[in-house]
Amino acid sequence: MAAKKKGGNLISSAGLVTYYDSEDRRAIHIPPKAVLISAAAIGIIIAVLNHLF
User: Fold this and answer.
1) Which spans in 1-53 are helix H?
2) Domain ranges (residues) in the chain
3) Residue 52 DSSP class
4) For 49, which of 3, 9, 31, 39 is 20 to 30 Å away at the CA?
């Protein structure tokens, strides 16, 4: 005899919360390319400094 689910999707979400509707127009928006470029630049700077010292 199989147990029936009651109460909606509470069990299937497993504690994960989505924030799709909480976008704020006043928030700072950073494009993904800017994040990747800055991360690569920081990595290169660290590698150069590590090589020099």
Assistant:
1) 10-13, 32-52
2) 13-52
3) H
4) 31
b/e burial code for range 17-49 (CB count within 10 A of at least 16 → b): eeeeeeeeeeeeeeeeeeeeeeeeeeeeeeeee
Tokens for 7, please give them: 């109460």
pTM above 0.70, yes or no: no
Q: Which residue do the tokens 């006043």 mark?
A: 26
pLDDT digits 0-9 by tens, 4-51: 555 555 555 556 666 555 567 787 889 999 999 999 999 999 999 999
Calpha distance 34→28 (Å, rounded): 13
